[in-house]
Amino acid sequence: MPTQREVDEAEIRQRVEEIVEGIRAKDLETLQRLYATDVVSFDIDPPLQHVGIAAKMRNWANVFAFFQDVTYEVRDLAITAGDDVAFGHGFGRLSGTLNNGTATSGMWVRATFCFRKIDGTWLIAHDQVSVPLDVASGRGVTDLQP
């Protein structure tokens, strides 16, 4: 019989898979159900933080506006779950066909998800996406592979 931690980890992995499916479908309603209403997101694009579910959904809507079709891939996802908070980290890559017909393989980013169990459901309370920084040039390094 699985432990509660194993059950929680499986549920969180399922939530991450729902994120992947929601992104691929460009489905804001599905994505909105995965985030806490007071989510704080440190996403790849400005500003430094996006606060609240409406801001997070605007972020996704902006991404979807660039793509005819979009794919999202997660690799090396590690999850640590407590009783009512959990975190996960791994690598993500957004790719697809842009509206102008250009195919893009995207870039790999580092992703961290922080979850809270709210009314029995694991929701994303915080996420952070980043690329490594080349300190000498002050530029992000976007050509690395996991």
What does this structure look like?
By secondary structure, the protein is an alpha+beta fold. It has a single domain (4-131), classed as Nuclear Transport Factor 2, Chain: A (Roll). Helices cover 27% and strands 45% of the residues. It has three helices and nine strands. The protein has helices at 4-24, 28-32, 53-66, and strands at 35-42, 50-51, 67-81, 85-98, 103-104, 108-118, 121-130, 133-134, 139-140. Strands 1, 2, 3, 4, 5, 6 and 7 form a seven-stranded mixed β-sheet that branches. Strands 8-9 form a two-stranded antiparallel ribbon. A hairpin with a 4-residue loop joins strand 8 and strand 9 (139-140). The protein starts with a helix and ends in a 6-residue tail after the last strand.
